[in-house]
């Protein structure tokens, strides 16, 4: 009896250790883009996405069913636009958000008001902030969100597909002759992107050279004169809506521009390029195609 | 307070020679500013090439840069600055209030609401300008109608009506800004701060500036009397009511055209007239044409800086007008004590 006691205690200890280990294994931890670690003991069931990009990433990561609310302009995938709104990304309706009792909020590092985010955290709601600035950042965002939502397999698949698609493009255009490119974010004021911006990275990926890539600001405002001097071979417009020819027609005023002379004025739907989501792959394919067309017109 | 800085200064009335000399110097400064504006830009064009283009030579690139981009923009800046300064001087006389500027009666607010609504609807820049003009005229007629009311009319009634209507426009602008999608905001804010990047075809603004100068200079003597007060003017046989409405409509039309060309550029209309009064005295026959030249010069220089300081990136011109004008104004004010 006295000799068997240590054995029982040992057994109990082993059991307890096992339980603890089990619990630790169930806890899903991920580090967000603001360098904070978020751990959930059970996968998030009620997720609120505070940017249109976060909504897209959640759906792509297979967690669409767990999204209970979104913000204005969350229009992709189409079923996302039917979800309840909690305001716009820069002015949140905290009351409505809290009333939905979310167990995870996906924030946007620079897009959401910092004060409101801290308020949410003080209320005990975990906030996971994302803002991918690289292709790899998009891939890991898919994996991290999937992990927190208990959809690891789907997330990994989506991330792999994205990485593979980009790798194919990179391989295809690695040795393509460089093309000087101007990407027009907006027309009035005239705005473009630098090389640090995801769109700038897509231009580089496709063998393009962003004529304003070296500017210091992520989205610089420039003047037409600078564009005339830079004389890009291709002008790509994003901008308003999904079918906007007007900005491109505007450049016809300057027939001496190489891009105008060769008719290398292209529109790429902004939603495919301006959001850091897996759809960027489709946007990149189109952008690469346009540059290839321009190479053919030399 | 009213009239404190509008008092006819001790300088007395200028002789014809002084008048010609002053305006000649200001015109020379304006010409110099225009040459600087045409010679400078984010692209380096040698001065000789710039001048060659102006007399019909130069290569294609220089011609495009100078004739299609810099010159129209510089002329638009000149016209806008001139219109705003003259409109400001007229408003200060009309309202007998040194704080009056072209926007005090809510005209820029109406124009802004028109422009922002057009931007929100996704219209092109020509329609945005048209909409701004309609907004400005609506604001003018609204204040005119409300202040006219049932008869008894005074400058302070006009001022109060205008200020209250302007607050109303301000609220509508804030509402539009808070309901607009984020991507539209930079364009809207640049419009509100004033921006000459999309000013095309300075013809109308320049024409109006010349026309108004020719029209108001003969009225200078009556305006001088009006600046001292309506009763005094009436006693001296000036048709006060008619003159006041003429001044109001002229100033409104000028402001509407200026705002339609370049958005609501602040500061020029308020400070340029005061600045000139500190130096030249308060004779409207001199001040009004001087305002046209000095206001234009200031805005041309400010716009040149705005587009070259951190080129190829651009700054809003309103920031530069204030940064240039505030120290000059404070210096003159200090010196005049």
UniProtKB/TrEMBL annotation, chain A:
Keyword Repressor: no
Residue intervals of the Fe/B12 periplasmic-binding domain: 46-295
InterPro entries recorded: ABC_Transporter_SBP, ABC_transptr_periplasmic_BD, Vit_B12_bind_prot
SUPFAM superfamilies: Helical backbone' metal receptor (SSF53807)
Gene3D superfamilies on file: Nitrogenase molybdenum iron protein domain
UniProt keywords, alphabetically: Signal
Pfam family, one: Peripla_BP_2
Cleaved signal peptide residues: 1-25
Identification of the protein by name: Iron complex transport system substrate-binding protein
Organism of provenance: Halomonas fontilapidosi
TrEMBL record, chain B:
Pfam families reported in the protein's UniProt record: FecCD
Localization of this protein: Cell membrane
Membrane topology recorded in Swiss-Prot or TrEMBL: Multi-pass membrane protein
Organism superkingdom: Bacteria
Residues annotated as transmembrane: 21-45, 74-95, 102-121, 127-146, 158-179, 199-219, 245-272, 314-333
Example of a GO MF term: transmembrane transporter activity
GO cellular component: plasma membrane
Keywords for this protein: Cell membrane, Membrane, Transmembrane, Transmembrane helix, Transport
Primary localization class, coarse: membrane
Entry-linked CDD domains: TM_ABC_iron-siderophores_like
UniProt record similarity statement: Belongs to the binding-protein-dependent transport system permease family. FecCD subfamily.
PANTHER family linked: ABC TRANSPORTER PERMEASE PROTEIN MJ0876-RELATED, FERRIC ENTEROBACTIN TRANSPORT SYSTEM PERMEASE PROTEIN
Name of the molecule in the record: Iron complex transport system permease protein
């Amino acid at each position: 009896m006295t000799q068997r006691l240590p054995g029982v205690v040992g057994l109990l200890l082993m059991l307890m250790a096992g339980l603890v280990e089990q619990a630790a294994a169930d806890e899903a931890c991920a580090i967000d883009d603001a360098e904070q670690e978020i751990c959930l003991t059970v996968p998030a069931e009620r997720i609120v996405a505070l940017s249109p990009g976060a909504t897209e990433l959640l759906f792509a990561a297979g967690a669409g069913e767990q999204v209970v609310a979104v913000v204005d302009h969350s229009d992709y995938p189409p079923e996302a636009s039917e979800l309840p709104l909690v305001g716009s990304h820069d002015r949140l309706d905290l009351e409505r958000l809290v009333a939905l009792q979310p167990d995870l909020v996906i924030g946007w590092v620079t897009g959401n008001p910092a004060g409101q985010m801290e308020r949410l955290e003080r209320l005990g709601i975990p906030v996971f902030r994302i803002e991918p600035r690289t292709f790899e950042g998009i891939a890991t965002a898919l994996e991290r969100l999937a992990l927190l939502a208990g959809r690891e397999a789907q997330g990994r698949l989506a991330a792999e597909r994205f990485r593979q698609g980009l790798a194919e493009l990179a391989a295809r255009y690695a040795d393509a002759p460089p093309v000087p490119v101007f990407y027009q974010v907006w027309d009035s004021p005239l705005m473009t992107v630098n090389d640090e911006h995801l769109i700038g990275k897509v231009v580089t990926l496709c063998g393009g050279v962003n004529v304003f890539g070296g500017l210091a600001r992520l989205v610089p405002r420039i003047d037409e004169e600078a564009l005339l001097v830079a004389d890009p071979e291709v002008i790509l417009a994003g901008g308003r809506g999904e079918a906007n020819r007007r900005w491109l027609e505007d450049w016809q005023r300057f027939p001496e521009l190489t891009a105008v002379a060769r008719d290398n004025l292209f529109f790429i739907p902004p939603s495919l390029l301006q959001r850091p989501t897996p759809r960027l792959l489709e946007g990149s394919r189109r952008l690469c195609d346009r540059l290839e067309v321009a190479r053919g017109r030399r | 307070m009213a009239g404190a800085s509008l008092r006819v200064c001790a300088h007395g009335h200028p002789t014809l020679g002084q008048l010609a000399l002053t305006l000649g110097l200001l015109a020379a400064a304006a010409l110099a500013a225009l040459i600087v504006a045409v010679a400078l830009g984010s692209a380096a064009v040698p001065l000789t090439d710039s001048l060659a283009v102006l007399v019909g030579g130069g290569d294609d690139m220089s011609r495009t840069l100078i004739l299609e981009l810099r010159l129209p923009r510089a002329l638009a800046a000149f016209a806008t600055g001139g219109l705003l300064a003259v409109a400001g001087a007229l408003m200060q006389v009309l309202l007998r209030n040194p704080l009056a500027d072209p926007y005090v009666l809510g005209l820029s607010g109406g124009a802004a609401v028109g422009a922002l609504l057009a931007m929100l609807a996704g219209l092109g820049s020509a329609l945005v300008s048209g909409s701004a003009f309609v907004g400005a005229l609506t604001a003018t007629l609204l204040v005119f109608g409300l202040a006219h009311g049932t008869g008894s009319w005074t400058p302070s009634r006009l001022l109060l009506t205008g200020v209250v209507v302007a607050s109303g426009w301000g609220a509508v602008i804030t509402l539009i800004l808070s309901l607009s999608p984020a991507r539209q905001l930079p364009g809207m804010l640049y419009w509100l701060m004033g921006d000459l990047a999309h000013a095309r075809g300075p013809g109308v603004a320049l024409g109006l500036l010349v026309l108004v100068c020719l029209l108001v200079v003969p009225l200078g003597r009556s305006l001088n009397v009006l600046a001292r007060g309506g009763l005094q003017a009436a006693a001296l046989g000036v048709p006060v009511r008619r003159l006041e409405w003429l001044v109001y409509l002229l100033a409104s039309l000028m402001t509407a055209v200026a705002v339609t060309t370049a958005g609501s550029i602040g500061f020029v209309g308020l400070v340029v007239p005061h600045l000139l009064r500190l130096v030249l005295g308060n004779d409207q026959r001199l001040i009004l044409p001087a305002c046209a030249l000095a206001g234009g010069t200031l805005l041309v220089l400010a716009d040149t800086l705005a587009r070259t300081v951190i080129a190829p990136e651009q700054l809003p011109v309103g920031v530069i007008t204030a940064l240039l004008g505030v120290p000059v104004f404070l210096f003159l004010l200090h010196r005049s004590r």
